[in-house]
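Researcher: Quick sanity check before group meeting.
Model: Go ahead. Protein one:
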Amino acid sequence: ELLVEAIEAGDMDNVISTLDQGADVNTRTHDTPILLRSVLHGDVEIVKILLKQPDIDVNAQQGDNTGATALIKALRSLKYSQRYEKTIEIIKLLLKDKRTDVSIDTVYSTALDAAMHNNAPPEIIDLIEKREQEDRLNKHLVTHSSRVADRTKLSKLKKKMNLPCEMYNTIQDHLGGKSKRKTRKKHRKKK
């Protein structure tokens, strides 16, 4: 409660001291995450303090986890914001934070949809598109490295369990790797 009161009052010193005393940075008030409330208040400094907290859920959603995130709420408020410049600064802070998931699709929209619909400047739209591309690439790399690790484990397992070649090749094909059947045929022909 003290953290919520400090945020509502815009009292940075109290926000810092309550966080230092162990206040939960993911506290909700009226089913709204405090980061989102800080975004709505347009308090850039408090948003910075909250984003420095390692445990903050930057993607916490309003309501029952189908509502807006802090990023989407900031983007949606651009159209009506009297604190336009502060809102732009907050959006940039959220986009720079690697924990922010720009691909979350809420009942309202995605971050890109919200940006385009609410006349966000091209610079913001470019940042969102760049983050989406980075996120897709990272997901691809994680998937690829996972498959490589699976193939390495399978190779060790084949040696350890003495798996029949056909079973090994079938599993290897399933993991997206190329079995060595063709290579073996080439070697046989050369001999």
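Researcher: Fine. The other one?
Model: Protein two, sequence then structure:
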Amino acid sequence: RSVFDGDGVKAGCLGVVLGGRDPQRAGPHPDVLIDPHQASSIGGTVDLRLTPAQRALREEAAAFCASIRPVLEADPEWRRQGMLSDGDSREVNRLLGEAGWIGLSWPDTLGGRGLSRLDATLVEEVLGYHWLPLSSYLLSYQTVGAAIERFAPALAPDLLPAIARGELVFCQGFSEPGAGSDLGALTTRAE
């Protein structure tokens, strides 16, 4: 069973951390459901059920996905896309942006909804269930957008709102000797 299945999963004293954050080093964070140091003070059981607001958010995302289903079915490439991250559709990316589904965890001043990463992940799970082609979304929001937000904040006001609207899309292309496009197979050396 998944933490996100909405049926109410309970876990013993355990810390749940999303996004690679370590509560022991990073301190309190909104994406940390429970700090392991505090688990014993709440009675030894953590309730991981979705909140009513999280359920409503998932239902809103599912309704959006259902509304664009005709766009997906009209695209002959949609059924052949393979993994979700392989599929790409400028039209779907545009529709995601128009409906406010890109940049969910970014502040509203940068075009996002200001949601926690947990809530954004709950939405992404729904997008996956509905087999949306998410290549542009994943690269533009989760990779390039996240890098801009963290490492180039001066560029964020110029770039993130356009990404969130679905107007600015990034791509990447790699081909290296001995590795092709498999970034995990790259090797380097210093001379």
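Researcher: One line on it for the slide.
Model: The CA atoms of residues 84 and 131 lie 6 Å apart.
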